[in-house]
Amino acid sequence: MLALVVIAAAYLIGSLPFSFLVARAFGVTDVRRVGSGNVGATNVLRSAGKPAGALALGLDVAKGAFAVALAERLSPGHPWLGAVAATAAVVGHVYPVWLGLRGGKGVATGLGAFAVLEPVAALVALPVFGLTVATTRYASLGSVVGACTLSALALVFRGTDAVALSAVAATALIVFRHRSNLHRILEGSERRLGSEESGRG
């Protein structure tokens, strides 16, 4: 019963639609109807501006970290629950109950969750993300490369324990959610950061 409560709580925390709410507070009525239609910090950045994007990013990271911290606090005798909570929070962000299961892509929430569970991997993945975005101007590619880096390092550092397997599962979901972006990158039609061209981000 405790496990179910912890997992459900992590999912509901991950489901909190901060990007949607921040965009609305900054004058965008429904971020799902503008830009890429994605409920995430990148689309908030493009549609509502840099301050809104930064706030949405910070809140999405924070909810991932909080979901894991709460899980660990509620179940100190079951360390694997923190790992499951991390994946549940990412699933909640991607498929939020509050927005009809139409959410974001889970990158910021995953970063926050695994920063608690495997901070070294998260700290390495962050500059890898930044470098990828800086050199390509593709936020989507940076997200995928950063997520893959984090899960690969988790496997290297921890073997196939619960945290590493949870990181792999979260990364698989993130890559799945970016499949259309990756396809557009291959086609040359993906929108770059700072570009005014039409396209979906």
First-residue to last-residue Cα separation: 40 Å
Mean pLDDT across residues: 92
Portion of residues in beta strands equals under 5%
Query: Biggest sheet: strands, sense, closure?
Result: none
Unreliable stretches covering 5 or more consecutive residues: 197-201
- Beta strands, count: 0
Based on helices, strands and strand pairing, what is the structural class? mainly alpha
Shape: globular
Order of secondary-structure elements: HHHHHHHHHH
How many DSSP H or I helices?
A: 10
Binned, the helix content reads over 70%
- Report the C-alpha radius of gyration, rounded: 16 Å
Keywords:
globular; 0% strand; 201 residues; single chain; mainly alpha
List the topology elements:
Elements: H1 2-15, H2 18-25, H3 41-48, H4 50-74, H5 80-94, H6 107-117, H7 119-136, H8 139-158, H9 162-177, H10 179-187
Helix pairs in contact: 1-4, 1-5, 2-3, 2-4, 3-4, 4-5, 4-6, 5-6, 5-9, 6-7, 6-8, 6-9, 7-8, 8-9
Give a description of the structure.
With 201 residues, the protein is mainly alpha-helical. It contains 10 helices and no strands. It has helices at 2-15, 18-25, 41-48, 50-74, 80-94, 107-117, 119-136, 139-158, 162-177, 179-187. Helix 3 (41-48) packs antiparallel against helix 4 and helix 6 (107-117) runs antiparallel to helix 9. It is globular. The relative contact order is 0.13. Mean pLDDT is 92; it is low at 197-201.
Offer a concise description of the structure.
The chain is an all-alpha fold and 201 residues long. The protein is built from 10 helices and no strands.
